[in-house]
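I am still learning, so can you show me any protein sequence you like together with the matching structure tokens, please?
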Amino acid sequence: KEASEVRARIAIGLAKTHGVALAEVARQLGVSTSAISKIIK
């Protein structure tokens, strides 16, 4: 569970703050683009 919380924080930081594409965030974190979408919403 801790790892998923860290991934969520990283994903939000990269996508919202730094403007990194969701597909790139997903690739870097080893999860699907849809998973990143759900995290950010």
Remarks:
- The chain has one domain: 2-40.
